[in-house]
Design goal:
2 copies of one chain form a homodimer. Chain A is α+β, with helices and mostly antiparallel strands. Chain A has helices at about 5-50, 50-55, 75-85, and strands spanning about 60-65, 75, 95-105, 110-120, 125-140, 145-155. A 6-stranded mixed β-sheet of chain A has the order 2-1-6-5-4-3, with helices on one face. In chain A, strand 1 and strand 2 (about 75) form a beta hairpin. The interface of A and B includes residues 109, 137, 154 and 159 of A.
Chain lengths: ~160, ~160
């Protein structure tokens, strides 16, 4: 083997390694989409359990809840307050289901979006039901977990 | 130069090229954030001009407007109708300003988020003003332009 052949060999090896890395990124991306679907469903479980601490733990340190009828709630403390206030609503029950999930090729930023049904009791104790859509932007953390960077929703119903 | 030195030389060259490529990605990312800021501002201009066609042209073919009090509007035709309906509201005037912009390392997915002020006249001609927050997810197109994948907003004000 000549020097040139060795250099070409080394170059080809590195190029093949790069191609393998690119292919692996695609596979990782599918894995990331599955991870995001799992995180979205696990976050919903904390809402079903009305567990404020566990719900807040799904949010990024710099995360924001962009919920209707209130200013943006940014950071763990503000998120905890907004979440506790929601769970304290009499008869609070929330379900959501994502129908669009994607992750950037680089694998650290993604979103889930879908529909929700929310029911509660108003101040007179009358059951109220709302339905609408949501958009959640997620950021992958250093430990590999996905956390909520933004969570936003609004109603499909006409103004009351 | 021995064969080994040449191989090491070639390897170092390729590693340096890779580092340069990574550094370039960061620079590209800053460029992408600037591009997203420009796209967000240019989209607002089409709202100020109430130009439906130009406003819709900022949306991805699979884009969705997730606006309050209406189901999700997905695709150019539904987006055009929702946009035309908004522009037709008497006295419609909308301003928004992003205060958070980020792009994934891979450079094809990003978001802008910030605040809006919206004013219009109600059915009796009385001026109404609303303020709130928005979240727009953008996707880079094959031609390098950024288009809206999701646009969502809701009010900061208490329920009326």
């Amino acid at each position: 083997m000549t020097s040139s052949q060795k250099i070409i060999g080394a170059t080809v090896f590195l190029l093949v390694s790069t191609s393998a890395a690119l292919a692996q990124t695609d596979t990782k991306n599918l894995g990331a989409i599955r991870a995001l679907r799992t995180a979205d469903a696990a976050w919903l479980k904390t809402y079903e359990a009305k567990d404020v601490d566990k719900a807040v733990a799904f949010c990024d340190e710099q995360g924001s809840l962009l919920w209707p009828n209130a200013p943006r709630a940014t950071g763990k403390s503000a998120i905890a307050k907004a979440t506790a206030d929601a769970f304290a609503i009499p008869g609070f029950k929330l379900e959501w289901r994502p129908d669009q999930i994607a992750v950037a090729r680089s694998g650290e930023l993604g979103y889930t979006s879908g529909t929700y049904i929310w029911s509660y009791k108003d101040s007179s104790g009358k059951p109220v039901s709302d339905k609408g859509k949501y958009l959640t932007v997620w950021k992958k953390q250093a430990d590999g977990s996905w956390k909520v960077l933004f969570d936003m929703f609004n109603t499909d119903l006409p103004p009351s």
